Amino acid sequence: MALSRRRFMTAAGTSALAAGLPFRPAFAQGAPIKLGSILDNSGNLDIYGKPMVIATAMAVDEINAAGGLLGRKIELKQYDSQSDIALYTKYAQQLVREDKVDVVHGGITSASREAIRQTFRRSNTLYFYNVLYEGGVCDRNCVVTGTTPAQAVEPIIDHAMKKWGNKIYTLAADYNYGQITAKWVAHYVEDRKGAVLKTDFFPLDVSDFGSTIAKIQEAAPSFVCSALVGGAHLAFYRQWAASGMNKKIPLASTTFGVGNEHLALSGAEGDGILIAGNYSQEIATPANKDFLARWQKRGGDTKIVHEIAVSQYQGIMLWAECVRKAGSIEREAVLKAIESGASIEGPAGLVAIEPKTHHAALDIHLMLVKDQKLTILETFKQRPPSDTAQYCDLQKNPGENKQYEVKI
Amino acid sequence: MTGSGFGVGRLRWHWFAAFAAALLLLPLVSETNTPTLLAIWALFALSLGLMWGYAGLLSFGHAAYFGLGAYTYAIASFNIGESTAPLLLALLVPALVAAIIGAMMFYGRISDVYLGVMTLVVTLILNRFMNATAGDAYRIGNARLGGFNGIPAFPTLNVPGDPGEQIYGTPYYYVVVICLLGAYLLARWILASSFGRALVGIRENELRMELIGYDVPALKTLIFSVSAAMAGLAGCLFANWAEIVTPSVFSLGQSAEVIIWVIVGGLGTLIGPMLGAAVLGSLKIALGSQTTVDNSLVLGAILILVVLLIPRGFAPALVAWRRRFASAQAHRRQARGTRRRHVVIRDADA
Amino acid sequence: MSDAAVETRELSVRYGGVLAVNNVSFALRDRELRCLIGPNGAGKSTFFKSVTGQVRGGQASGRVLIRGQDVFGWPTHRIVRLGIGVKTQVPSVMSGLTVEENLWLSARRTLGRQGADAAVDEVVAELGLEGFARRQVGELAHGQRQLAEIGVVLANKPWLVLLDEPAAGITSQETERLVAIIRRINRTAALIVVDHDMHFVRMLDATITVFHQGSILVEGRTADVLADARVREVYLGSRAR
Amino acid sequence: MDYAAVVVLEILYMIAFLALISAGLAVVFGMMRVINLAHGELVMLGGYATIASSKAGINIYVAMLIIAPIAVGLIGLVVERLIVRFLYGRMIDTMLATWGLSLLLIGLVTLIFGNSAVSVPAPIPGYQVGRYQMGGYNLFIIATSAILMFSMWLVLRYTRVGLIARGAMQGADVVAALGHNPKTIYMVTFTVGAALSGLAGGILAPLTGLLPSVGGSYIAKAFITVITGGAAVIAGTLSTAVVFGTVNQLVSFASTPVIGEIAMLALAMVLLRLMPQGVTGRFFRSST
Domain B13-336 carries which CATH code? Predict the structure, then answer.
């Protein structure tokens, strides 16, 4: 959108005035730091949202218990967007104009991220997006701690093609995440001289895959790669197992497990699915064990802990670390701390920010679903977000505000 | 639902002035972000209240025209840039689509529950289709339909003639309030006109209206189209408020919600639907600001209680209360014995 | 041949297997008062509906002429706009509106806003509706409602009035008033009255057309028709002989 | 050739699916002219009842064929006594109340079962059709749906209860004339309708994952199938289920499930336009 200069200036002017940021006389020591969060705590996407809401509260409580940040308490403003994108924009405006928060950790689907990212950029509110996604977002005001295709998709395709063959049938959720991830899958497959036979897209509320399963059998691929998202798409894995196909054609997925699908399916239905991601409850590090214990102590059921709940927790801890390093809550100061290469040791391993892309280098685990557990086959330490790094260099041109898509 | 006369007596200007003043002065006492949304939802509810309350046309899929208005504006503003033409298109496209579908239904003698299902099917088709347009191929001019992602960051309403000067925040609140008041006056004017009275006649008895020579299908199609244009305007204003348009504007939930606002507010009145939209709208937003209580539980319980306890909705209940309060004055007026052509019978529009 | 008010040529209406109206040719002169009688199922109502364009779901053939204009197949509202007032078998008024509002809607369609107000006053006076003019029609007694409906029919000054069983369910005293009203209407408009009530038909003393099994059995003055053996046999049953 | 067999089996499955999810609504709407917008949630409750009891060790078939219908039937009875009973004859109010009920049920189930998807594996293994692997459970659904429809037809056609039920279809006065208190007839009918919804939920549970919000996907399709079907409960719903099921799957095979569904919806519009009183308003007028 051609952001007309006049509008941007008036927006920046009024909101700065409204927030009173530059002209606040002296820091009132007692004034709480405000952390805003918008997540889908109800509706079709609540299988992702509810655990993230718990993780957010846990992170804030733990920071406050340790004396808060810079001696100030953190106040959490949590909103439930009810799986409705329109409420994302509503609450984003509310966080900026009324609550005047200092940072926002929120958004689950890429659609919701794109609905609110511009609002936070225009009002100079620092925004963290802590969910795996299709990569390519280049915006100085936005920090991403979730995995990108280069980190999580490439290992799956690499391993799967070596193990099963090079004819792939892709199923993907029909929105920006699914569309772009499907392109990355095609990109990595063609790099390895494979062929994507067909790509089918499914809106989030489709739950009848009978005809699709028949078409897959017709195409007879070496394996199926799924980037399906949400509660309704769970029906695919169930109908795939019900027809006995899980014994015939192997299945790899870029999103399976993120919504605890392996717990919803029975052992027999889920076994053998190949996935890769930043987190699994089976990670044997003390940090993870301790995290799960603390989660339990708060009365939470550890079964529901999944990758993006951990990413949200790690994102908040990383932000806190940067505030401590910057010694101030000002957005510019925190951004400088971020761009000086901040990192933390989270339950999913080391989370190190790359200054050029504001994305995180993460440990990636190649996993196989076995008896409703994500057993780790192989771990790649600190895989960089190389896909976004190809296009985005925020140090060279900080004014960048674009989401790049892979060109096949 | 017993009729309430033509439902609209002479407009009592002092009530209208008070109502308008309250809305216009609101920004002095509170922020305008949420009130703008509530005013938009009130306009949407008004459009259904006019068509359903007065012409008896119950649409299960009124969100279709709300959504068409929103999407038409977003797509047009990307391609045209300046916002005045897209605003007009956001009125015309829903009106045209409604005219076509309305004519098809009403000349096919489709009524009551079948009319409900037909309108439901229209909005479901739009929802399912728009939800599946995330691919690159789906674009009109330089506007990508975007499917589930919706269309974000299109040029919003600007001062007519000056594309640079976007309107948002409190000035935008005033634009929305003026649209709402304008729509209310238009609705009053329609209902006071012969066309409006014919609609009420049709609501009461279609056959008799046909027998005295009214072209019932044409009149129904006309009000269906006018109401769709009003809903399209609400959709367009919503698009500019949210600065994004997503297929959820066509959702089943959106259609059902507006029906509930009209019923809870008071069917057969104009103020009722607006009241219902504001009250239930703010409740939904308030419930969304907390995660302790599940909001569908609360909203569900409220709806059941309203139906069982206040069957005819808030507005008529308020009117009944006001009537009891005003009965003393009525006796005095009776004494003077003024003779008036069309007595206003139990109309909530004070 | 001067254009008849209403004329049908070989009019037939078939519902599935049943031939409700069988090749009926009928003519009504301007300002004539005609009564249609016949046992139930003789086709009176179906014939009535064919003239008002309300026949739905049946196969109809033949021609229906209103002052020479063939209206066969026209929708009801277009036929009625030629200046016809229709009262159906089942009472049909806007029960949620007041009598005045009902009359106003009917008058407004032909006479414009000012003309409508005047016409309403005229009908209220003529039919003596002052007592309940401002009450909702739904709350009126049956007789008052019948009168109100006739008022609605007259409000837009039709030159042809079709009444389907106006005398159904009203007291003999009200029947006399109804006959007086019909006579007054007949001063300016032609009328077709469909009914069973023999007492009412005798009082009307109009030309009568007797329907039997979908076609016209006999036509003539009241006295001759009621005395006719065939009518007696068909209509009043052999007992009456 | 076997690809064609697969397509036919998928069509039969969709017809059975539509008939199953519409049965409960058809009974309630056909008999009582009540539009139950909480029908989707009753189906969902049937699913949860099946999963809860099968997790508690009860045989899956007993759970889905006996426990689910009874449990949801009882819930239907409670709902009828507390809410629907006061609203007979007021269609709009029943719609609003049942819409509120559906939101309430979603909230309650989320509170009790939490919102993570639950499910139970399909008890019947896949089988081979030529070189295609087919879901064995689909056959079970086709069979149960056919048996259900046939038995409903038998009950309505040949039993005294059926006679009373068909009387109720004409209107409350007819039932009263038959010497029965309409109130009890409606209570029993609503309960049976709820039980049928529970049965449908139970049978479908192993196929689609269960979430509190899954009811939403059933209500629209069931509603359109029943209303377009017209007055006759069995013949109407069955005829539209056949037509919609065939069109939906054929177009889904030819393109995508989304286009398949849009084709079905467009067909519903055409059917309604041609037959304003629903399919059985015109054809099969006399059938039940």
Answer: 1.10.3470
